[in-house]
Amino acid sequence: MPLSTCIKNMIVTFFLVLALPCGAVSAQNDIESRKIDFLIASVANLAGAKFVRNDAEYDGKEAADHLRMKLKRAAGKVRTAEDFIALCASKSYISGRPYTIKFSSGETITSEAFFRKKLRQYNSSTR
Prior knowledge:
alpha+beta, 4-stranded antiparallel sheet, 4 helices, 61% helix, 10% strand, elongated
């Protein structure tokens, strides 16, 4: 086999090997993106509940819009649903105070606890 053909084969093989992990990373990103979308939808669809941020109450749609904005701003840092919960959905960057969710029953929980529970539900339903 001529040297140029051997070099071409080596180059093609090199790029194929490089492409394999990229496909795996892309698939992982898709999975994590679906999880994050699920988490945002879970707060957007809360009926009768209020998302409390810095003492102001917001409905689910407003909360979801805010979380999407934070996700967009933190996109380079958020790689997983866990990152999303920790970096975007748990507390205010401005005040450092935790977000809470107040249900119509009067129960109030931190948004972090809410999202972690929803993520566990998502993960158990996709197994």
